[in-house]
Amino acid sequence: MRRSRGAIVLECMLALAIFVAGALMIVSAMNGSAGAIARAGLTARAADHARNVMSRIEAGLARPETLSGPMLGEDGEPLGPEAWELEVRTEPAGPAGLTRVMVRAVLRPEVGSDRELASFELVQAMRLTREASWGAR
Predict the structure, then answer these.
(1) What helix, strand, coil percent values describe the chain, rounded to 5?
(2) What's the pTM value of the predicted model, to 2 decimals?
(3) What are the pLDDT digits (tens) for 16-38?
(4) Longest CA span, the chain
(5) Which string of b and e fits 77-104 if b means at least 16 CB within 10 Å?
(6) E strand spans, 12-57
(7) Distances (CA, A) of 30 to 74, 104, 133
């Protein structure tokens, strides 16, 4: 009788240990997924910023050489608590008079940091005015 009681207690402890281990694995997987979703959201925001800037250049509303640096709102203040930065470069793209425009939006933890939390680069060939196409090297 004593042996069966000990076996039942041991069996219960083993079942509990397996349950806890499984629960920890599930929680760990959920934390990893949540981090991946957050990073994907930041990358999507970076892509939106890069597309917005590329559209402004293509429409002639902004010159490439004026856009590199921290992203500021219309009031001259940063867009939010994050440190969004733009890197805009141009180079000739062949004999047809096209210019290769590279726009990279980068999220940094703080202004001046070298670490990147998210980034997205967009490259497009377009026809710019001569003065706009050579200024942002």
Answers:
(1) 45, 25, 30
(2) 0.69
(3) 999 999 999 999 988 889 888 99
(4) 95
(5) eeeeebbbbbbbbbeebeeeeebebbbb
(6) none
(7) 39, 31, 47
